[in-house]
Design goal:
- The chain has 345 residues and is α+β, with helices and mostly antiparallel strands.
- It folds into two domains: 7-82, Glutaredoxin; 93-343, Glutathione S-transferase Yfyf (Class Pi), Chain A, domain 2.
- Helices cover 57% and strands 9% of the residues.
- Strands 2-1-3-4 form a four-stranded mixed sheet, covered by helices on one side.
- A hairpin with a 5-residue loop joins strand 3 (56-60) and strand 4.
- Helix 7 crosses helix 9, helix 7 (170-190) packs across helix 10 and helix 8 (201-215) packs across helix 9 (218-227).
- The longest helix is centred in the first third of the chain and has 28 residues, at 93-120.
- It is globular and about 60 Å long.
- The mean pLDDT is 96.
- Bound molecules: glutathione.
- Residues 15-17, 53-54, 70-73, 107 line the site of glutathione.
Length: 345
C-alpha cells in the first residue's frame, strides 16, 4: 500500500475520535487516505499500534518505514508541526490553554455522554447494535448480523462501567447533556466556533462526540432536535470546513471572553473537574473505586489510568504559562470550578 503521499489512518464512522480527526484533516486541507475498518481489518503490511484504539495513524519514520500511532490530541499537535497553515491551535497561550482544557473535556466527558446514550436505553442499544457492525461490513447476511449485533451489544453494555455510566450516574450524565446543549446553543448564536470565528481543536473534539449524539443514536438525537437544533446544525457544518478561510484575527480576545464560554467552563468545572480530581486521588491511593459528588449527587466509577495522564498533561500546560498569561488564566478560571484542577496538583 502506498502510504507515502498522504496521511493514512484506520477508522470507522461510529468512532467519534475518527470523525474528529477526519474533520481536522479536511479543515486543514491535509490530503489523507481513510482505511475503513477496525484493527482486524487493517492490511497485514501495516504496523500495529501499542494500544488497540481507533483511529490509528500511520506516519513515515526516518528509516523509511511506518509507525502506527494512536491518541488524537497529540496527533493534532504533531500534524501542526508537519503541515503548516490553517492551524487549529490558538497562538495566544491563554487561549491555547483553554483550548487544551475544552478539548480534553470533549474527549473525556462528552464521550461519557455519547457512550451512555448509545448503550443505556433499549432503542439506542438496538440501533447501535445494527449500525456499528454494518459500518464494518455492510454485506453481512441478516443471520450473521443478528449474531454480531448480539455479541457487540453484550460487550459494550458490559463496558458501560468503564466510562462511569451506572444507575447512580445516569441522571447526572443526562442532565449534563441538556446543560451542554443549552450553553453551546446560546454560544453559537453569537460565535461560529467555541473560540471565535475560526475553528480550534476543541471544536473538532466536540464535533466528534456530537456526530454520534446528534446523527446516530436516537435518544440524544431527539434531545438535540428539541433542545439544541443549532448544535445539531453545527455538526453538519463542521464535518467539512475545507472552504472556510480562517481569519488570522479570528480568535476571541483573552480580555473579552463571551459570557457563554464562561458558562461552558462552569459546566466543565461542575462535572468533569470533580470526576478527574477524584480519579487522580483514587489512582494515587490505589483505591478500588472513584467516589465523589457531581452537583451534590454521588458519582461512583472504576479508576481510569488514562484520565490520570490527561490531568497530568493539563497541569503541565498550566505550569508552562508564565507571568501575565498565568495571571489572566487564573482570573478566567476563578469561579468556574476549573481552578480546582490546578490548585490541587
Ligand atoms: N484518547 C484516544 C481515544 C480513542 C478511543 O477511545 N477510540 C475508541 C473508538 S472511538 C476505541 O478504539 N475504543 C476501543 C474499543 O472500542 O475497543 C483518542 O483521542 O484518540
Amino acid at each position: 500500500m502506498d502510504t507515502a503521499l498522504s496521511v493514512s489512518l484506520l477508522g470507522v464512522p461510529g468512532s467519534p475520535y475518527t470523525r474528529k480527526m477526519l474533520a481536522v484533516l479536511r479543515y486543514r486541507r491535509i490530503p489523507y487516505r481513510l482505511i475503513l475498518g477496525s484493527h482486524r481489518d487493517a492490511p497485514m503490511e501495516l504496523p500495529r499500534p501499542r494500544v488497540q484504539l481507533l483511529p490509528v495513524f500511520y506516519f513515515s519514520t526516518s528509516g523509511g518505514g511506518l509507525e502506527a500511532v494512536v491518541d488524537s490530541t497529540p496527533i493534532i499537535r504533531r500534524l501542526e508541526s508537519e503541515h503548516p497553515g490553517r492551524s487549529v491551535i490558538p497562538q495566544d497561550p491563554v487561549l491555547a490553554f483553554l483550548n487544551d482544557l475544552l478539548e480534553d473535556y470533549a474527549d473525556e466527558w462528552l464521550t461519557k455522554i455519547m457512550f451512555h446514550y448509545r448503550w443505556h436505553f433499549p432503542e439506542d442499544i438496538k440501533n447501535a447494535g445494527k449500525i456499528l457492525p454494518l459500518w464494518s461490513n455492510n454485506m453481512l447476511s441478516g443471520e450473521t448480523l443478528e449474531q454480531v449485533s448480539k455479541s457487540i451489544i453484550d460487550r459494550q453494555v458490559g463496558r458501560l462501567y468503564v466510562v462511569g455510566s451506572n444507575e447512580n450516574t445516569a441522571r447526572i450524565i443526562e442532565e449534563s447533556y441538556l446543560n451542554y446543549l443549552g450553553i453551546v446553543s446560546r454560544h453559537l448564536e453569537c460565535s461560529p466556533f467555541l473560540l471565535g470565528s475560526r475553528a480550534a481543536s476543541c471544536d473538532f473534539a466536540a464535533f466528534g462526540q456530537l456526530t454520534q449524539l446528534t446523527q446516530v443514536d436516537p435518544t440524544p438525537m431527539a434531545l438535540a432536535r428539541d433542545h439544541g437544533p443549532r448544535v445539531m446544525a453545527w455538526v453538519g457544518l463542521v464535518e467539512d470546513l475545507s472552504g472556510l478561510e480562517p481569519d488570522p484575527d479570528g480568535w476571541i480576545s483573552r480580555d473579552q471572553l463571551p459570557a457563554t464560554l464562561l458558562q461552558l467552563l462552569k459546566e466543565v468545572g461542575r462535572t468533569y473537574v470533580p470526576v478527574m480530581l477524584a480519579n487522580a486521588h483514587a489512582l494515587k491511593e490505589g483505591a478500588q473505586r472513584v467516589e465523589t459528588k457531581v452537583a451534590g449527587k454521588p458519582w461512583v466509577q472504576d479508576p481510569f489510568p488514562y484520565h490520570g495522564r490527561c490531568l497530568t498533561w493539563l497541569r503541565e500546560a498550566y505550569e508552562a504559562l508564565c507571568g501575565e498569561d498565568r495571571r489572566r488564566t487564573d482570573e478566567i478560571l476563578k469561579d468556574t470550578g476549573c481552578d480546582a484542577m490546578f490548585q490541587d496538583g
